[in-house]
Design goal:
single chain; two-stranded antiparallel ribbon; 11 helices
Length: 370
């Protein structure tokens, strides 16, 4: 092996050893990140074993690749390199990705889950405030009955001035509708208060996700779940209010009871707005280890870490093939290959012409010599 080839092979061996050492660091960091409470002893031992095993094996394989010439030896070297690269990828690629981007992956996963809690809170608030349009309807009915009572008291219906029985009855209807409007508005206001508490918890969710703090995130999810449960308990509150709201008129002819026009409209609108039975589904938060988050974010936040891990574990195999090429290059360079000149009709004619000129010159020379 010449000096240049030997230096190149030693450089490739050194580079492979460095890659193996970095892979070992990734293995140790990845193991520790997966279970921080277990300490560093086992991860460090695993890292040392990986570093020694991969470094020695790559060193031997690359050195053998530069010297092997027989087919069997080449087959063993190439197969060994491929197997070793596969083992390195299986053992350390994810660990390297976890060590490099594990925290970023956890943050991305937490941020992704915030949307589910935000949607659940919005849905629960919408269900709890379904009677909001009815507040205006009941308020308008209250104002209408009070106006009628004033007109009745003013004698505009031909019954004389003063508030008699009919006037008092209209005032009673107006007060009933007004109390219903106030009760419905109070229920909507309570739902808004609970929703603001939930939104504050969602803000803490986002902060915890940005920090990658799963403990704070879990506490905030419980607050959001409590807010959603409170809002769900308010869905049926307007039913009791509406049941005692409205006016029933009794016909003097057939003695049948009917809802007046305002009450009938309110009942129909309430039936239209009332949400279906059921509850808002709140996501269940399950804490993730950095390794799990790294796998989940393989094509997201952890993509750079996976690329780095694959590169570090795959580079020694590339070094192996470079050593193979360097070992065969002197043999290919020194191999004799006869020059093959391209023949064409023009070239053949030129060759025959040169031969004829040469023959004629030789004949003249012989005559002159005689």
């Amino acid at each position: 092996m010449n000096t240049h080839l030997a230096r190149s092979v030693r450089a490739l061996q050194l580079a492979a050893v460095i890659c193996a050492a970095f892979a070992a660091i990734g293995v140790a960091s990845g193991f520790h990140a997966a279970d921080p409470d277990s300490g560093w002893f086992v991860p460090l031992v695993a890292g040392v074993v990986v570093a020694i095993g991969f470094s020695i094996t790559w060193h031997v394989l690359i050195g053998a690749a530069a010297r092997t010439r027989r087919l069997l030896g080449l087959t063993v070297v190439i197969a060994g390199g491929i197997i070793l690269a596969a083992l390195a990828l299986a053992a350390s690629a994810q660990s390297i990705a976890t060590a490099l981007t594990g925290t970023a992956a956890v943050r991305a996963e937490l941020s992704r889950q915030v949307t589910g809690y935000t949607d659940a809170l919005a849905e629960a608030h919408e269900r709890a405030t379904w009677a909001q349009p009815l507040v205006q309807m009941t308020g308008a009915s209250a104002a209408g009955y009070r106006a009628l009572a004033e007109q009745e008291a003013g004698g505009e219906f031909g019954t004389g001035a003063g508030c008699g029985t009919r006037c008092a009855e209209l005032q009673t209807f107006g007060d009933s509708w007004s109390r219903s409007a106030s009760a419905l508005q109070e229920q909507v206001d309570q739902a808004d208060v609970v929703n603001r508490v939930g939104l504050d918890a969602v803000g803490r969710l986002r902060s915890a996700a940005a920090l990658g703090d799963q403990t704070l995130f879990l506490a905030a999810t419980q607050e959001v779940g409590t807010a959603v449960a409170s809002l769900e308990g308010m869905v049926t509150a307007p039913d009791g209010i509406l049941a005692s709201t409205g006016v029933i008129t009794v016909s003097s002819t057939d003695r049948t009871a009917r809802l007046d026009a305002q009450t009938a409209d309110l009942t129909a609108k309430a039936r239209e707005l009332r949400p279906a039975d059921g509850k808002t589904e709140v996501p269940v938060f399950v804490p993730q280890s950095p390794s799990e988050a790294t796998r989940a974010q393989m094509f997201g936040a952890s993509a750079p870490g996976w690329i780095a891990g694959l590169a570090i574990d795959g580079l020694p195999l590339l070094f192996l093939f470079i050593a193979l090429a360097l070992g065969f290059e002197p043999l290919l360079r020194d191999e004799h290959k006869p020059l093959q000149r391209q023949t064409t009709p023009e070239r053949n004619a030129k060759v025959r012409e040169d031969e004829a000129d040469t023959a004629q010159g030789s004949t003249i020379h012989l005559v002159a010599g005689e």
